[in-house]
Amino acid sequence: MLISIPGVLSAEQVARAQSALDQASWVDGRVTAGPQSSRAKQNLQLPEDSPVARELADMILGALQRNPLFMSAALPLKVFPPLFNRYAGGHSFGSHVDNAIRQVPGTPHRVRTDLSATLFFAAPDAYDGGELVVEDTYGSHRVKLPAGDMVLYPSTSLHYVTPVTRGARVASFFWIQSLIRDDGQRRLLFDMDTAIQRLAADVPDHQSTVQLTGVYHNLLRQWAEL
Length: 226
Fold this sequence. Notes:
alpha+beta
């Protein structure tokens, strides 16, 4: 399931982040790449222990907790602390699959990467190229979203970033371990949750809302991994 989530960050939050990222010190993006990805990765990245990275990561995590679409689609159990990258001057990232397990730096905690997320900080007209291309059984999906918007997609997907030929593409990227490991089951629960919310809004007192909500939670109880 690939889903775009608009307005994760407000215009004020985006402007504050853009200002901080413009003044930040960037390093070679291969510092967090695995053996396969390091050969395909050409970009810059904020050091994970950078005060700017930590401040903006906390802002993103707080925004995600308040975003009902993200919570419904991801059913998050753990979220890897957001990282930040910058593509400019022909930078790109070749086709790859994200590592299955990520170690949270400085902790004993690991995150299974069920879902990958990219949150955009640069406006689409501020740079040429830089599309995130996600491949699945339905073909290739090219993603280039407004600043403050985010895309969520299965970490099992082959994906790449096309070369940036003008301007700079600045974004945050991170991974989510979901309560529901299987993407198909997660999609069924998301579709059911969406239908329940629409039914409750259109026919507030319909008794089927209670029945469907019960089915949703029973499936979640059966499939969830804690």
